[in-house]
Amino acid sequence: MSLHFLRVPIMSERAPRRSTDEEAAPLLRDDDDDVGSTQEEEEPTLLERLNSIAQEPLTPLTQILLVVALVLLLLSAVFIGLFAGEYTKLKQREREDGPRPTVTVTQTAIVTTTAKPPGPTGSPAEEVCITPECIKLSASILSSLDVSKDPCENFFEFANGGWIASHPLPADKGSFGQFEALSIDNKRVVQHFLETPSATSSFTTSADEQLLHKLRSFYNSCLNENRLDEIGNEPLLQFVKTVKKLFRREGFEISEISSENDLSGLTPALVFLHSRGVHALFTFKIKGDAGFDSNLMVPWLDQAPLGLRAKEYYQEPEIVRIYHDVLERLFATLLKEDKKTTLLAENQWNIDHETDKNAQINEARRIAASVVMFETKLANVTLDNGAYQHPFLTYNRLPFENLTELFPQVDFSQYFAALTPRRFPEDIIVTSPAYVVALSKLLHSSSPATVEAYLVARAALALSPNLGMATEPWAAQRALEEALTGIKKGTIGNRKEYCVDKVEATLGFAAGRYFVNATFGSDPEFQEKSREIIKNIISVFKASLPNISWLDEKSAGAAARKAAVIRPIVGYPDYPDVREPSSLLQYYSTMEVNEDTYFDNLLSAAASDVSRTWLKVGQRRNPGEWTFPVYPSTVDAYFDARANEIVFPAGILQPPFLSTQWPSYLSYGAFGSVAGHELTHAFDSAGRLYNQHGMLENWWTPESNAAFQIRQKCIEAQFSNYTVDDGQGGAIHLNGEFSSGENIGDSGLIHAYRAWKARFNESQNAGTEYLLPGLNYTREQLFFIAFARIWGENVKTATLVQRVRTDPHSPRNLRVEGTLSNIPEFAEAFQCPNGSKLNPPDEQRCVFWS
User: Fold this and answer.
1) Can you give 310-342 as a three-state secondary structure string?
2) How far apart are CA 821 and CA 783, in angstroms?
3) Which of 109, 205, 599, 740 holds its CA 20 to 30 A away from the CA of 753?
């Protein structure tokens, strides 16, 4: 990259005149003022002389001298920054044991430093880029560092301490990091075209006009808080009444519960809930049949989310108490407004809801207790998180008749006929037959009243956030959110940000059309750069396979064939085609949007999504369709084992992950680590069991399979040994089995490092390995700093606990340091002494790819 001087604008005309009351002399002078005057002229003041000079035209020589002076000033600032940075590092180096040698330098003062610990290796004697872009980039990196931390012991805080200190956690959020910061920036892009018609004035097709109208109507309905408060609890109340009528078979042949254990209304009630996106008892996902034909879309039955999200919470009395109180508040509200019938089918008591408040409260309390007890039993039979790392265990293909026998309380003929009328599934994939059997037993032993209350609770918890914030159900579910995430009580986030988030969640591909135009349209090169990085990482990974000591020739060849056909999708999906508005309009054709009914808009969006999903049953997979809930504006990436695809939405292809103006060592360290992570998922604890066609197959030889499992057990043990604060004076261990796939994925950082190294000479000749001003670090060190910076985050303790229990990703600080401790190249780059935290003995490292 060529270096450029900063251009300094030169004024060719005088500055604007001051007002007349500040003039040193009149604009026009009379002759009498100069000629024949006997009064001595006054000496001009300093201000007047400066003003006179400022108004004189600059000569060419003066202009040149000004430019030279500014450049010298800029260079001085850079050298001062270098000196200050080095001085700071020298002051904090107190690492080695024993007597500390001192070096005394005498000038006008005496400076004493300790022995030099591992750290920056000094400024390379190369040209430094001093363009404004380079200076800004260098400043952003310097400001993110905390050089008081030893990089060999605490690299996460070394790389992120400055950023964390300058980005305090917002009161309304459980966590905030680099991912979230970029996500908010992306939301502002979406918000701009939602609120500014001129921002999309170039889109003049009829289809675009309809899409934009739908997007803006949905957004405005969310913003209309006055309307939400005006309608109050009514939308939720009507939804719950429908659930109860269906469960009680009102309007069907059976008009009331005919026996104590009659659950004949369970099926229609579940169909209604599931068709509106409310999860209860079980869920269905429509995915490729990885054991028969990975492109044939079939239903996969899995367990439903729990009200407390993780089974461990049901063993914590304080959290259970809060949950009980929240449910009690919800049921009390519903009982108060539902005056015609009682909530529980078995209880036919007659209470004046207006006068007997104590009876109403007692009944709500009893109902809440029955739901908590039911969910506790449900949690006890749910599959442990670690089981999801075993694809063969969670793939159980059953004929339709077998499912009916396992779970007789649900009429699956009726269920599927309602959701997929065109193609009735012949076979079902069940994640855990044991869960289905246990669930059936639980339903058999539970009263219809308790089951109905559970269904109502699932609806109330799921839909209460869509009511006005002045309503009691909204406040109740918010209390649960505060308890589980640790966010400050009573804090409310930015409503516009929230509403943009809802737009993305419901109309994400439509919004993506205009987001992509605002990002790719202004700089299409970053799509090309990301593709190049991904391609190079895959190429280097394939080339490294024959050199991996524990991988035999047959397994290495199969791995290379799989890597060769991995398909990267960058920016946006092929289906729906965000470049074609008519395709998007068809995709969202069944979704009704009214600017006056936010609650109904969300139900319509959920129903549209469920209907669109079930129509895939029996169909071939749409090539290039995204199977994970991400959209073009999402800051995320993923690997789809059944499609053998890695997906990178446009939302993540920006700083601090990627920029076309960055030197290669930063691009590979940041975005390259993401690409290496997703590539490695194809060969992690679960992904490695899918072949190049996305089919479940143990294609490893017994020897290579055993060698991989040794390394997998190593990383499971490593991360199981890590703990996080539980907020109560204790600690919670990570579940190394649950997080093993993601931790192995993070080991793909080494592929990004090798890909950068393999093309260093080529990149340097192309001018994309330039150094930055004020950074006294080698390129290798900056590669790892770029990797660590993307994981910078502030997080609440309660949110961290919830993540450990529900998220397969390890906490971000442990993702950084756990990964780097397994990569010897990091210790070499920072000259870490043997035995330091991030340079452990070789026998303690979990190394996969060497």
Assistant:
1) CHHHHHCHHHHHHHHHHHHHHHHHHHHHCCCCC
2) 15
3) 740
> What secondary structure letter does DSSP report for 392?
T
Four-residue CA torsion sign, 588, 594, 598, 604: negative
Ordered DSSP codes for 3-39: --PPP-----SPPPPPPGGG-SS-SS--GGGTTT--S
Please check whether residue 721 is in contact with residue 731, taking contact to mean a CB–CB distance below 8 angstroms: no
Determine the Cα–Cα distance for residues 62 and 382; give it in Å rounded to an integer: 79
Instruction: Give the tens place of pLDDT for each residue, 383-426.
Output: 999 999 999 999 999 998 899 899 999 999 999 999 987 778 88
- Name the one residue in this structure whose structure tokens are 């490292």: 845
Straight-line distance from the first to the last Cα atom of the chain, in angstroms, rounded to the nearest whole number? 34
Q: Where are the alpha helices (DSSP H) in 545-687?
A: 553-564, 581-587, 598-614, 664-681
Smallest CA-to-CA distance from 263 within 529, 105, 442 is with 442
Distance of alpha carbon 94 from alpha carbon 100, whole angstroms: 8
How many Cβ atoms sit within 10 Å of the Cβ of residue 494?
A: 13
pLDDT of residue 336: 86
Q: For residue 408, is the peptide bond before it cis, meaning its omega torsion is within 30 degrees of 0? A: no
Backbone phi and psi for residue 323, each to the nearest 5 degrees, phi listed first: -65, -45
Q: Looking up tokens 């992509």, which residue turns up?
A: 516
In whole angstroms, what is the distance from residue 442 CA to residue 436 CA? 10
Chain-centroid distance, C-alpha 730: 28
Q: How many CB atoms lie within 10 A of CB 6?
A: 13
Mean per-residue pLDDT, 302-323:
97
The tokens describing 471, both together, are 């309503």
Least Cα distance to 794 among 347, 169, 353, 251 occurs for: 169
Q: Which residue has the tokens 């737009």?
A: 503
Helix (H) or strand (E) holding 165: helix 155-166
Instruction: Report how far residue 492's alpha carbon sits from residue 642's, in angstroms, rounded to the nearest whole number.
Output: 40
Asked if residue 811 has a cis previous peptide bond (ω within 30° of 0), the answer is: no
DSSP for residue 682: T
Interaxial angle between packed helices 206-223 and 495-519, expressed in degrees from 0 to 180 and rounded to the nearest 10:
160
Q: What is the tens place of the pLDDT at every residue in 690-731?
A: 999 999 999 999 999 999 999 999 999 999 999 999 999 999
More confident residue, 168 or 34: 168
| Structure tokens that stand for 602 in this block | 């969300």
Q: From CA 850, how far away is CA 824, in angstroms rounded?
A: 11
Question: H or E segment at 301?
Answer: strand 293-303
Compute the Cα dihedral for 421, 427, 431, 433 and give only its sign: positive
Predicted model pTM: 0.84
Contact 798, 165 (CB under 8 A): no
Angle 234-247/317-337 helices, nearest 10 degrees? Answer: 90
Which residues face 575 on adjacent strands? 625
Q: Which residues pair with 428 in a beta bridge?
A: 398
DSSP annotation of 651: G
Q: Which helix (H) or strand (E) holds 428?
A: strand 427-430
Q: What tokens does 36 get?
A: 């024949």
Most confident of 89-93, 118-122, 326-330: 326-330
